[in-house]
Amino acid sequence: MKRFSCGALRAANDGTGAELCGWVHRRRDHGGLIFIDLRDRDGITQIVFDPQHAAFSDAEHLRSEDVLRVRGRVRKRPAGTENTRLATGDVELAVEELEILNRSQVPPFQVNLEENPEESLRLEYRYLDLRRPRMQRNLTIRHRIIKAMRDFFDEREFIEIETPMLIKGTPEGARDYLVPSRLYPGTFYALPQSPQLLKQICMIAGFGRYMQIARCMRDEDLRSDRQPEFTQLDVEMSFCSQEEVLDVMESCMRFVWKRVLSLELAPFPRMAFADAMERFGTDKPDVRFGLELARVGDLFASTEFAVFKSVLESGGEVVGVRYPGGAALSRREFDALVDDAKQSGAKGMVWVALGADGVKSSAQRFIGEAQADPIAQRLRAERGDALLLFADERDAVFTVAGKMRSEIARRCGLRRDDDFAFCWVTDFPYLEIDAETGKPVPAHHPFTAPMEGEWDLIERDPLRMRAQHYDMVLNGYELGSGSIRIHKPELQRRIFEMLGMSREQVEEQFGFFVRALDYGAPPHGGMALGIDRIAMIACGEENLHEVIAFPKTQTARDLMMDAPAPASEKQLRDLHLLPSQRSQRG
RNA sequence: GGCGCUGUAGCUCAGUUGGUUAGAGCGCCGCCCUGUCACGGCGGAGGUCGUGGGUUCGAGCCCCAUCAGCGUCGCCA
Questions:
Q1: Distance, angstroms, CA A221 to C1' B74?
Q2: Is the CB of A109 under 7 A from strand B?
Q3: pLDDT tens, residue by residue, A354-374
Q4: Model's pTM, two decimal places?
Q5: Is A318 exposed, middle or buried (0-12, 13-18, 19+ CB in 10 A)?
Q6: What gap in Å lies between CA A486 and CA A536, rounded to an integer?
Q7: ipTM of the complex
Q8: Within 10 A of A296 (CB to CB), how many other CB atoms are there?
Q9: Which residues contact A184 (CB under 8 A, 6 or more apart)?
């Protein structure tokens, strides 16, 4: 007798014998007739027990999450009792043979409900949580995404190379997860934050086109879009231009979206970092909607409004953003919006409501009909909209306005999760000023090549230098970064020098890599994309937990396994983290 | 490390200005039911109100501390 999955049977199977295996999703016991919805990864099929068959008496004792094997005959449901909400809803299996493969305890939460139980409960009983159709669907989509990526790169003659998990740590960047060495007391491996240097060495080794579905670890605090271990699509190519990398990565995403979601993606818009900051106030702009920021400081050149005046005189800027339909807000609602803005780092916020009956503003004395008009024009605002204005130093003001732009979009329902707006951000500055030390540090990593023709800035004016670095952004999430790398050893040394690293420091941390550059490193570049985030957005989810089988809590714990956990004394001694027995006695 | 939200039955939640015996839906248990699909009907069990302290004649509710989950800032070259 043929075994079918629980999502497979159709009217065409009417009359055939079939075997199904799965879990009891739901039971409907009518006394003289018992319906069970049997569930597996593929779907749900209704199976029916009637009293003529011996199985009926056992079926009376079936409960949620029991595991069954049933054999019987597929039959069309009686006219009028089809279930259009099930793919298998035209048929049912009339059970003749029931085998109870395993019983289940009453589960701590109902697997057959859509609503999420509390997060910690889901994580503790992850095997039950993962049985829910939503999670089965999400992890299946994730699998298809990864499969599509591998197929895409395989067709283009990239090869997947596995890089080690036990590597050398770097003091720069994120905190490393360390693994103590047993054979070398007092020394540690680090788990990779990314295979960056190893994939570059694969280029030096002549592999030309590399990819890897790479696991990465960073011991930093978590967020809804950040886990301590994550998976990235890691790509590196030799003899390529930035243009070729952008093209292959964009093509890959187009291929994935087409294959997995059956959607055609338009060409990704591109913008320079500086433009992204001006237009959107962030280097990861959400371009699902417009509402672009605009400078309006020049319109207040002769204002008497003290707040704007003083900011403008000290070299700051006034930036506006449009709030569609915002004129309908009450004074109280505007006040709350001002609080939101302050929460986002604003010094304050001026609102201008373009009401049908005239202009109202929180700076009424200074912004009337005449002043509001040109601002509205620049922000492409109409009657019924509101304008939000922010004044601050040049860097800060765009960031704040950008956060409020995003908040406005949320309120106006412009952030649809079935809308996928990719874009590229390019031409990043090479350096940024470290907030703590005030010293210049690489905005990304020190193996990034400076923009062609700007190398002389290394000595002359390093802060103005730009990097051959690019980010792919989707719906306001940074999916990942890439760059053209430095392949000339002398340029790499000049960069380390600019960063204030001594010859000894370079040798100790990156000696193996700098040496490799000396033996004929080809020009190369690449990119890494966060697969967890891609899967999250593709699934319409807002938390990585929904697309990772066994995620960690915000405090980096695994509630199912209860990790991390203490190690035994013997383990600690072996790893030289406790004095050995012998030296204790001695 | 900072800030915020949440924590009440197995689950999801309600619980009034602090006042009698803390409720609902689902689940669970028992009985009934031959066309349901969130089946239906009748009955029942089930609670240290996260934990510890305090205020009060009296605390699920107010205060302090603490734990956990989530969100957010710092952090994530």
A1: 10
A2: yes
A3: 999 899 999 999 998 889 999
A4: 0.95
A5: buried
A6: 33
A7: 0.94
A8: 21
A9: none
